[in-house]
């Protein structure tokens, strides 16, 4: 092998190592500023609950929810990314977990297969939605009156200039005010985020 070729291999290997470290460390670090147990305590996730997680991604929050609701509970992990859902399914098989069901949804509808959910959770999802009002409207058909809608978003004062930048508190409140959800409270104990707790109006 030539010296030039070896240098290219070294650069590629270094880049891959950096990306791997970034991803792994990022997930580990996330527990310090988005601690699942503390969040679940604050929103009152209980054993036996049936929860829909909209925009579950690769399942950072999903598996904590599943552990909390237990064998008698269930978590529907929704996303529009087949790749992300495949990652969740691989871990389900690896760890023999049976109370998580992955759901491939649409951009305007999570397509949860069950109605009367006890809670719907959206972690860093609202600001990513192309048509948030339509999505929030479609959520209602999976909820019973009084069901909680939990929205966790970055607590920022920076005005959103373009999609999919994070939204300010005012932008979030103004958006959801146009829906049939009633704001109960906003929790701000997290270092980076705010937790918006809404309920579906009867």
Structural features, described:
With 202 residues, the chain is of the alpha/beta class. Helix content is 38%, strand content 24%. The protein has two domains: 1-33; 34-200, 3-Layer(aba) Sandwich (Rossmann fold). The chain has helices spanning 3-33, 36-43, 62-69, 82-95, 132-139, 169-176; strands at residues 50-53, 74-79, 100-104, 117-123, 143-154, 181-187, 193-200. A seven-stranded mixed beta sheet has the order 3-2-1-4-5-7-6, with helices on one face. Mean pLDDT is 89; it is low at 10-26.
What top-tier CATH class of the largest domain fits best?
Alpha Beta
SSE order, as H and E?
HHEHEHEEHEHEE
Largest sheet: 7 strands, mixed
Q: What CATH architecture of the largest domain do you see? A: 3-Layer(aba) Sandwich
- Judged by helices, strands and strand pairing, the structural class is alpha/beta
What gross morphology would you assign?
globular
Report how far apart the termini are. Answer: 71 Å
CATH topology of the largest domain: Rossmann fold
Note the total helix count: 6
Strand order of the largest sheet: 3-2-1-4-5-7-6
Tell me the CATH superfamily of the largest domain. Answer: Vaccinia Virus protein VP39
Brief characterization of the structure:
The protein has 202 residues and is of the alpha/beta class. The chain has helices at 3-33, 36-43, 62-69, 82-95, 132-139, 169-176, and strands at residues 50-53, 74-79, 100-104, 117-123, 143-154, 181-187, 193-200. Mean pLDDT is 89; it is low at 10-26.
